[in-house]
Amino acid sequence: MHTITEDLRPLHAAAVRATVDLVARATPADLGKPTPCAGWDLAALLAHMTAQHHGFAAAARGRGSDETVWAPGPLGDDFISRYADAVTDVLDAFAVPDLLDRPFVLPEFGTDRPFPGRLAVTFHLVDYVVHGWDVATALGLPYHPAPEIVAATLPIARAVPDDENRLAPGAAFAPARPVPPGADPLTEILLLLGRRP
């Protein structure tokens, strides 16, 4: 992935907070709905999203190697408030002044090698721009991230390796799909990351 020099945390925070509003639109009756994530209903997706926030928060605090912090738990009836709490957890953890230079251990990326915080922010940003679309699609809601968020996310999506790892069970993204000429930036992001917009 290319070198990231800009502090993307303000855009990251806006993108992640926008998912709180989407998740708040879900009802218990929606949890069985299919999502664009192969094999996942909305309940599984929200459990994953909630756990990932806590995992990245733990990684920001130097505890990312503890795989239990990444494990999704049962949603429960309070899944909306628990999701909002998870967002608060990760945004608080990401707000510290030296975050961009902290080492992040992210075991789900298949390596013990730490990533610099500024790169970890990009991983989380692209994930939640795409997962926001996943939730909106499952719920039949419009999804229009701010243009500056999409503009910051597009080069990250372009830099995600499109290799055999995308074929592995549980891979974060499916193989990239062809991007037609003139595709808008959000559509390009989704296609590059294997979604079917």
From TrEMBL:
Protein origin, superkingdom: Bacteria
Record SUPFAM superfamilies: DinB/YfiT-like putative metalloenzymes
NCBIfam families, per database record: maleylpyruvate isomerase family mycothiol-dependent enzyme, TIGR03086 family metal-binding protein
Domain Mycothiol-dependent maleylpyruvate isomerase metal-binding: 13-136
GO molecular function: metal ion binding
Name the UniProt record assigns to this protein: Uncharacterized protein (TIGR03086 family)
InterPro entries registered for this protein in UniProt: CHP03086, DinB/YfiT-like, Maleyloyr_isom, MDMPI_metal-binding
Matches recorded under Pfam families: MDMPI_N
